[in-house]
Amino acid sequence: MRIDIQSACGSCKTCRDRNDRDKAWFSKKPIFPREVWKIGGVNDSFKKYFSNDEGYHIEWDEDIFGGKNLRHLKETFKIFWENEVHKSIIVGETNPNLLKIFENEPWCALYNQSCSILSSGRLPSGPEIIWINEGDDLFSEDLTNYGGTERVFFIPKGLKDPDPLNRGEDFSERHYTISFANFYKDIAI
Asked: By three-state DSSP, how is residue 158 classified?
């Protein structure tokens, strides 16, 4: 006796046979659509910011949205754009000045109140700028580049470490972070 076995799922109507749902419970596992194109890349001069598995974390505070700091922030995003970084994910309620920066170029940007957007993978592949405003529902893995992601993280100064072993401590106490001012000095050569 021979029994053929196929990879299948019977948990939703997507995986059931669409031609005859009453007779057949399973069909072939659906194939997810492939990406049509990759958005951006990382120029060699910028690889160091994206290559660390733990991630590159830039701390910012509210004065980033005023005066010369806002100018520096605009220039920073322009430098990212020029270095082939064209995607961004913004988490939490954000300052309108940050949203205006994305109007200057055709950025591929997502905005969501929940940190769950960081693991959903709804954008095509390519390097990303992650802007965190609030981190109440963050997981440790949300702030890393594990799994092949290429991300630079802008985190608020004083962000609490989401790791259950370090709860209550500032993220910067256990992880390497750089202030926005020092990061700007580094890239604005």
From this structure: coil
Comparing CA positions, the residue from 177, 159, 160 lying closest to residue 58 is: 177
pTM of the predicted structure, to 2 decimals: 0.77
Structure confidence by residue, pLDDT tens digits, 121-159: 567 778 899 999 876 788 888 888 877 778 899 999 999
Distance of CA 51 to the CA centre of its chain: 14
Task: Quote the distance between the C-alpha of residue 135 and its chain's center.
Answer: 13
- Candidates 79, 72, 140; CA nearest to 105 is 79
* Nearest CA among 156, 38, 31 for reference residue 92: 156
Count of CA atoms in the C-beta half-sphere (13 A) of 128: 31
Query: For 37, what's the count of Cα atoms within 13 Å in the CB-facing half-sphere?
Result: 5
Residues in the chain: 189
What are 51-90's pLDDT values in tens digits?
A: 777 889 999 999 999 999 999 999 999 999 988 888 899 9
Q: How many CA atoms lie within 13 A of 133 on its CB side?
A: 16
User: Could you tell me the end-to-end alpha-carbon distance of the chain, in angstroms, rounded to an integer?
Assistant: 72
Taking the CB of residue 126, how many other CB atoms lie within 10 A of it?
19
